[in-house]
């Protein structure tokens, strides 16, 4: 599929009131949208949801639909139990999704899914994974909220550098992850830290729509993995 010949369709979708309501709206110009799809088309994208899965209005689900429509190869991790997760079972779910990938792959992970991706990467080789976009990793070591018991099986968090480049995205008012802890994780994992302001947990209730700013950051990661300047 030659996406460069169809810039208007992607641009129209991005402009349909899907900008983040809690930050400065971002509009992508046609050439930017075409370039974003072009660079992401060079990879397979694996969506890694977190606790309770990502609903239809979650930015991960929106990306899955939008990028798939534009010809980007998308896979989504399917878990047998989203409500009462165990690390061994979720690790198998991630492995099954990666097993079908045949080209360089980028993990797009949220919350507990980001912890899953980081921990498994620290334990075993993850070919064909080339990089990871880790959004609001759940701090399973220090989070003390009502769901702490549901995620305790995912500790300890990795203490070493991940075996591939990554971006760690953090929000200043995330109940699952303080900015101080986010910076510490980014240092340990060798991740580029991205502060997105006040977007809560950047999940089902964050109301970011298609989250164009996040999609742009993902494209930046893909460019860096391809050795292409933005």
UniProtKB/TrEMBL annotation:
What InterPro entries does this protein map onto?
A: AB_hydrolase_fold, RBBP9/YdeN
Q: Which organism is it from?
A: Gluconacetobacter aggeris
Keyword set includes Hydrolase:
yes
Keywords tagged on the record: Hydrolase
- Keyword presence, Hydrolase: yes
Give the range the annotation lists for the signal sequence: none
One Pfam family from the UniProt entry? Ser_hydrolase
- Stated name of the protein: Alpha/beta hydrolase
What is a single molecular function from GO for this protein? hydrolase activity
């Amino acid at each position: 599929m030659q996406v460069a010949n169809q810039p208007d369709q992607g641009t129209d979708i991005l402009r349909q009131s899907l900008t983040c309501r809690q930050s400065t709206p971002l509009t992508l110009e046609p050439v930017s949208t075409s370039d974003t799809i072009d660079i992401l088309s060079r990879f397979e994208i694996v969506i890694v949801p977190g606790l309770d899965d990502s609903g239809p209005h979650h930015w991960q689900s929106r990306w899955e639909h939008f990028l798939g429509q534009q010809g980007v190869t998308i896979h989504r991790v399917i878990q047998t139990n989203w409500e009462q997760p165990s690390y061994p079972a979720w690790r198998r779910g991630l492995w099954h999704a990666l097993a079908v990938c045949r080209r360089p792959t980028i993990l797009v992970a949220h919350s507990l899914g980001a912890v899953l991706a980081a921990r498994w990467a620290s334990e075993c080789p993850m070919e064909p994974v080339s990089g990871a976009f880790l959004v609001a990793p759940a701090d399973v070591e220090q989070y003390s909220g009502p769901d702490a018991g549901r995620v305790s099986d995912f500790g300890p968090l990795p203490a070493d550098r991940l075996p591939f480049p990554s971006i760690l995205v953090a929000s200043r008012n995330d109940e699952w992850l303080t900015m101080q802890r986010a910076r510490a994780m980014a240092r340990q994992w060798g991740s580029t830290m991205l502060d997105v302001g006040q977007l809560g947990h950047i999940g089902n209730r964050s109301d970011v729509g298609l989250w164009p700013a996040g999609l742009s950051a993902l494209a930046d990661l893909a460019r860096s993995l391809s050795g292409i300047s933005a």
